[in-house]
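Below is a filled-in request sheet from our internal design queue. Each sheet records the structural input a requester submitted and the sequence that came back. We keep these sheets so that new team members can see what a complete request looks like end to end.

REQUESTER: design group, bay 2
PRIORITY: normal
MODE: inverse folding
CHAIN LENGTH: 204
BACKBONE (tokenized):
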């Protein structure tokens, strides 16, 4: 039932689409969009299987956001894993849809990085809070994310230095902006599975 279901679209998504059209061939853009939609569809299916309803669907420069009811730690772990694991399953169809399979595999690997608010960061948070004391869990989350984020930024800077152009710096900037934006969202009343912290609502 969708009577309380709302959809929001960020103006920035139009700019992102225009930039993609300028720098990427159309077949790869279509493959990227198909892989992204399948990734989010897997999240949605997991939410429905766990008995949760989507309240709001948002389209923005950070991807698709699904706002839903509060998720328990186990439910959040299940719903978070569904996206990247579903994307990796598309690799089995690489013979027939090579571009989509490549995009899905790369998206899954990216999302599995243990950096919040990526899926990997959410998985790390769920596992740490489930198996460790609160103080230790928070310290593990913080330091693992700092180590991985620092390593990624170093690699992107090195890629730029060795002549891969400005794209690595753009990727680094987008990742940093996404992390900062999600920290702001986490302080709001409704936060989420796909991008937020514990609250009365969750965003996927």
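RETURNED SEQUENCE:
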């Amino acid at each position: 039932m969708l009577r309380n279901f709302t959809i929001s679209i960020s103006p920035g998504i139009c700019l992102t689409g225009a930039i993609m059209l300028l720098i990427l061939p159309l077949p790869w853009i279509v493959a990227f969009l198909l892989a992204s939609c399948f990734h989010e569809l897997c999240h949605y299916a997991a939410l429905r299987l766990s008995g949760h309803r989507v309240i709001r669907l948002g389209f923005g420069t950070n991807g698709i956001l699904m706002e839903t009811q509060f998720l328990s730690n186990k439910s959040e772990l299940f719903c978070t894993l569904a996206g990247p694991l579903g994307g990796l399953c598309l690799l089995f169809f690489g013979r027939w849809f090579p571009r989509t399979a490549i995009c899905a595999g790369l998206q899954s690997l990216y999302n599995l990085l243990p950096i919040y608010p990526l899926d990997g960061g959410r998985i790390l948070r769920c596992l740490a809070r489930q198996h460790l004391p609160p103080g230790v869990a928070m310290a593990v989350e913080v330091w693992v994310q700092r180590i991985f984020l620092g390593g990624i930024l170093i690699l992107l800077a090195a890629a730029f230095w060795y002549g891969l152009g400005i794209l690595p710096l753009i990727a680094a900037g987008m990742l940093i902006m996404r992390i900062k934006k999600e920290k702001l969202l986490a302080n709001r009343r409704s936060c989420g599975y796909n991008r937020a912290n514990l609250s009365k609502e969750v965003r996927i």
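SHEET NOTES:
- The chain is about 65% helix and 10% strand.
- The first strand starts at residue 6 and ends at 9.
FILED BY: M.R.
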